[in-house]
Each structure stands twice: as C-alpha cells, then as structure tokens.
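re the bet — no i am not wrong, look at it urself. input seq straight from the record:
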Amino acid sequence: MLGLRNIPVYCHMGVFGCGSGGWTPVMKTDGTKRTFHYSSRFWSDRKVYNLAGGKTGFDKQETKLPSYWETHFSKICLGMRSGSTTRFVVIDRSANSLYALIADGRYRALSLGRNKWKSLIGPQASLQRNCNKEGFNVVGGSSRNSKARIGIIANQENDCLSCDSRIGFGTGGLHDDSNTCGNEATYSPDNGNKHIKAMGYILVQ
C-alpha cells in the first residue's frame, strides 16, 4: 500500500513506576544540555534526534523518536532522574501525538497539582507558592521568565507575570537558562533556592 513506512517502535514493559502495560518512549532530555531547551526547534519539528538512544532505556543518552509526532496515546509517563533515583508521574491525557500538544506553542492546561510535580524531584524540590500554572507550553509573563514545554511554573507574587521557579521538561528562563530539565527555584520558594538539573524521560501509552 502506498504511503506507509516502517518506523521503529520501542516498548518498556513491566512495572517501572508508571503502572502496568507497554509504554512507548518519546524523548529523553538531559537538563545539563541545551538540546531540548524551551526554544529548541525539536519541540516544533518532525525530526529525530539520536534514534539509537531510544533503545538504551533510562540512561543519559538524549533522544527524540518518531513517536513524538506519530503515536496516539491516552496517558503520558514523565520521569526525572536526579542523583541515583528516578521518579515518575502519570498524566491522563489523550492526544494524536505529543507534537499535537506542543508544536504550535499554545498553552494547554493540566491540573496535576504542585505536589505531584514536586514528587518528580523528591524531598529537595522547591517552588514559589503562587501562580502554579501547569501544562504544555507554560510561560510566566514575558519570555524571559520561567517557562516549560511540559511542567509547572510558580511565583512569589500573587500573579504569573514574573515567575522565578519551575519544574519541568524543555524549560528555560532568566534564572539559570541552562537548566533545561529539572527544578529551578529562586526568590522565596517553599524549600529554599534550587538549581537541580535532571535527566528527563517521556513515554506514552
């Protein structure tokens, strides 16, 4: 049949932190690198990055797979590894692809709650107390402030105009713009200032 092509699909089976069933890897992002910074073209294009990295499990090899734009799903599994521990959360969200939720740059809300986002980092996690805007393509005020392709941003003031803290994937902002995955928190966050760069894992089911 014309128009069809084979694409590699990798699958994580068993219980690793997101519940049972098969999970399809989509991306692995290293918070110490700018490959998947908020401003990276990889969030808005249909190009792979290091295809081989999709086969190597929860390691430090960054990757972006065709599943980013070709895989339908009803759940998203997010994982962050900081130190020697990898922690996961599951988002119940249906979409034609992750590309469909992110590539156009439009904000799409989620309602996991700040404690669920903080659980990705563990006891060290810190966020300012207000705003708590979460979802896809989250930006606090101007583009210079905290932002995340997937995540939460917060502020010490009772608005979202000058957010100085974030937990998420594909992040950026005025305070340590080099931190592209993990937890960044300054200006009176609830658990002290933090600059935690994590390894991020995104899978769908």
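see?? The longest strand covers residues 85-95. told u. also The chain is about 5% helix and 35% strand. so pay up
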